């Protein structure tokens, strides 16, 4: 089952400071989480991220999984070159009910990485081979990305933002979930909103939605 893991405000530890660790760090950077990287010899890019305060780097030689008891993260990513150490980290994390991922052992991990198509930081489309072949996931992504980008318009992206605003507003006044759902579906086809969207009048759209929510029966 594919789920979207919300890491905003959570602590994530990446163990290792080489290229594999850097790949994982880059994927975490837009998730709003606190990133702690633990390793002995960071590569130049990880050093740069540490100096610019985008991550917290701890220069420690890791030989066991005891660090988990100190930091108690929400998620730990084991990306060292020592497979047995990665496995120890995974096993300890699971005992402590910490989500864990090992770069060299996706089958024993709690999560798997998808090959993502990101559209204007609003839409994410994930391609997964269930850990069977990350290389094929990337190849498939490359094949379908242009087609996906072509078929999702700027208007689609704006409608998502409008729906998000409307969901928040509707919860204040429409207390029954089924009614909120109906309201949101009706909103998608509302002629006034479509006209305002065409003219780029986003503030007016929000004002209209607020009135529609209050008048909903």
Automatic annotation (TrEMBL):
GO molecular function, one term: ferrochelatase activity
Enzyme's top EC category: oxidoreductase
Gene Ontology BP annotations: siroheme biosynthetic process
Catalytic activity: precorrin-2 + NAD(+) = sirohydrochlorin + NADH + 2 H(+)
Alphabetic keyword roster: NAD, Oxidoreductase, Porphyrin biosynthesis
Coiled coil (UniProt feature): none
Transmembrane segments: none
Keyword presence, Cell inner membrane: no
Pathway this chain belongs to: Porphyrin-containing compound metabolism; siroheme biosynthesis; sirohydrochlorin from precorrin-2: step 1/1
InterPro entries the UniProt entry points to: Met8-like, NAD(P)-bd_dom_sf, Sirohaem_synthase_N
Domain of life: Archaea
Enzyme Commission code(s) on record: 1.3.1.76
Protein name: precorrin-2 dehydrogenase
Organism: uncultured marine thaumarchaeote KM3_74_G04
């Amino acid at each position: 089952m594919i789920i979207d893991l919300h890491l905003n405000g959570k602590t994530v530890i990446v163990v290792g400071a080489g290229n594999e660790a850097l790949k994982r760090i880059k994927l975490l950077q837009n998730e709003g989480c606190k990133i702690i990287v633990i390793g002995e010899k960071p590569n130049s890019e990880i050093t740069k991220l540490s100096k610019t305060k985008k991550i917290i780097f701890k220069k420690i030689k890791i030989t066991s999984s005891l660090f988990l008891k100190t930091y108690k993260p929400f998620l730990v990513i084991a990306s060292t070159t020592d497979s047995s150490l990665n496995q120890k980290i995974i096993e300890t994390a699971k005992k402590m009910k910490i989500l864990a991922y090992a770069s060299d052992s996706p089958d024993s991990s709690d999560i798997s990485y998808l090959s993502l198509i990101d559209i204007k930081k609003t839409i994410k489309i994930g391609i997964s081979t269930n850990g069977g072949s990350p290389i094929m996931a990337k190849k498939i992504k490359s094949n379908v990305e242009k087609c996906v980008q072509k078929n999702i318009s700027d208007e689609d992206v704006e409608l998502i933002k409008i729906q998000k605003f409307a969901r928040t507003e509707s919860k204040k006044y429409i207390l029954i979930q089924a009614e909120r759902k109906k309201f949101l579906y009706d909103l998608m086809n509302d002629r006034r909103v479509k006209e305002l969207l065409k003219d780029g009048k986003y503030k007016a759209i929000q004002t209209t939605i607020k009135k529609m929510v209050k008048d909903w029966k």
